[in-house]
Amino acid sequence: xxxVVLGQQNSELVIGINGGGYIANKKTSVQYNGFYNSYxxxxxxxxxxxxxxxxxxxxxxxxxxxxxxxxxxxxxxxIGFHIGKQKRKSKIYIDINFADLKVQDxxxxxVDDPNNQSVDPxxxxxxxxxxxxxxxxxxxxxxxxxxxxxxxxxxxxxxxVLEVRLKENYIIVDNKQYNIIHNSGTLLNQNLGNSPGGxxxxxxxxxxxxxxxxxxxxxDFGYHIQFSKTNFSENLSPWGIQHSxxxxxxxxxxxxxxxxxE
Length: 262
Hints:
By secondary structure, this protein is mainly beta. The chain has one domain: Porin, CATH 2.40.160. The protein is about 10% helix and about 60% strand. The protein has helices spanning about 40-45, 50-60, 255-260; strands at about 10-25, 60-65, 75-85, 90-110, 120-150, 150-175, 175-180, 195-215, 215-230, 240-250. The longest helix has 11 residues, at about 50-60.
C-alpha cells in the first residue's frame, strides 16, 4: 500500500528531508545588474581609491561600454524539512525550505588600446555576481488523487511565508572583489550590513509522485509552483511565479520518536 497508509487507520506523524532545485522569476534580479542604484559599477570606477588600481590594470584610457540587459537568476538549490500528520487519504503538513540563488553576468569595459591594430577599442568583460538567500515556510494539505500498488499521485495545496535576503553583489577586476553597496548606511556604519530584504506571502500547489517502500519509509518526487511576493523593499516587492523540483525521503515519525522514548 502507498504512503497514505503509513499510519493505518490512525493519524500518524511523518517526517522527511528533501533536496532539489529552485527556479526564481527574474523580476527582482534587476537589483544585481550593477546599475540599480547610485553605488553600483559607475560609483566603484569613480572612487579615488580604485582609480589608481584600475588605471594600472587597464593601462590605457577606458570606459564602461555595456551593462547587462537581460540579467536573470541561475537555477538554485533548495533543501528542507517536512513534518506532517498523515491520515489515509490526506496529510496536513509544514515544509521549511532554504534556497540559494545566484546571478552571474558581465559588464563590458572598452579600453582604447593603441596596440590592438583596430579602430575599435579592446573590449574586456568583468564578472558581475549576485547572491541571494530565500527561506520558505509552507503550511498546507496534500490529497491523494491516484494510487496503485506501491505508487500514488498526490496534490499539495499550501500557503507560504517567504523571506528574501540579498547576500552579496560585486564585480571582479584583476581577481579582486569590489562590493556593490545596497544599503547607503553601510558607507557610514559597516555594522549595518549590506543585506536588503524582507518577508512576503504566497500560495502554491503542484504534484508529488510517491513510491512506497514499507509501512515506515517512502520516497517523494515532486514539483511545486508558487505565486509569491518577493519583498526586498518598498520599491522592489513584485508578485511572481517560482518553481521547485525536489526529491524527499519520508519516515514514520511516530515510530521513530516512540522507539527513542523506550
